[in-house]
Amino acid sequence: MSFDILALEIKHMIIKDVELDTIGPESPAVSKAISNTPAPRLVSFTLDLDEKQLRNNNILQLFKNDAPNLTSARIHACRLINGLPDFPSLAELLLRVTESNLPGLLDMLRRMPRLTHLSLKGANRWDNSPLPIHDPALETVILPLCRSLLISFMTAHRTRFILSHIDLPAVTHLDVRETIVEDEHGLVATIFDTLPKLPDPPPQSEPRDWIFIGIRSDQLAIQFLGYRFQTQWTNFTFATIADANVAANTLFSLIVDAVCAPADILFLQPTRLYIENSITLDEGGELFMGLDDLRVLLGDVFHTYPSIQRLSLSGNTAPITRALHFTYPDLLPNLASLDLQISERGNLPGIYDGPSLALLQHSRHLEIDNQL
Fold it and tell me: Which InterPro entries match (predicted)?
């Protein structure tokens, strides 16, 4: 497609998605058209460049910095695009974060106070590079209108670096999905940094009356109204701890602290608890949790949230109902109902234990709904 045809199309388009590889024959013409052609009607734009495109396929700017109605932009590029803060209507930004653009990310966001939704997704290819150093130290970036922030596919120290420099006074939805890392002080998980950033809910808003805890052998997810945190340690190994038992105990202590954090930091005491369990093996390998770890973790969960009146379970529910009856019969004193549900994840089979359900119904007089 020629430059002239592309330029004519850009001038009249409202929504445009562009994907460029490194060898496509049309790439130079597309790059030139995107860089130098105003787009007066454009509302939504996606630019998806191959991660190997270290020079952004020679795209230095977008639409000659002239797209006055551009509201939403999804930019997957190695380097920051010049002029993004100059689009006056841009409110929603989805950005791929790389080792090349992280050093300038905060300065760019500082010039974008109109953002209402921000999504930062880490690149698949990322060398083990140090965090940026700013001298003088950066001032906090204030995004006064930003209601929603998603950070995903990053290591926890990069997530923490970004969050430590951003203030979100209007945030109503905060979603962080990261990988555990180790620093000189121990393990890093930013749930302890993100929870204090949540403002108190307005008096007339929906209460934070439920909490979801998703448990896998190598992943933990915690969610409640307006907040989600997910951490995983699939390929993680300690650099400073050689003893396998000490390493496993250190990781497990962090998991327990994370599960308890909403109650400890926000004093959250919901009436409904939803646990989805994917663990099926008796013993975890290396740093993977097994059923013994699950049983101990459940004790911390039940002890931390005594306000629970309704317990909903999915996945492998059998060890949970057994633990509730045999190991922790005195915890969750306000529990009145128990639901066993099909997981929303289609590939997670539902498993239940009939005898422990019958015993719970008899001993606790629970209303039980088993959909498995």
Answer: LRR_dom_sf (IPR032675)
Cα(11)–Cα(64) distance, integer angstroms:
11
Please state, in angstroms and rounded to a whole number, the distance separating the CA atoms of residues 118 and 95.
8
Dihedral angle of Cα 227, 84, 127, 130, to the nearest 10 degrees: -80
Alpha helices in 13-82 (DSSP H): 27-36
Q: Rounded CA gap, 288 and 111, in Å?
A: 43
pTM value is: 0.91
* Per-residue pLDDT reduced to its tens digit, 327-341: 999 999 999 999 999
User: Helix crossing, 27-36 with 3-12: angle to 10°?
Assistant: 40
103, 124 Cβ separation under 8 angstroms: no
Output the DSSP codes for 341-369. Answer: ---SSTT---B--HHHHHHHHHHH--EEE
- Please give the pLDDT value at position 187: 94
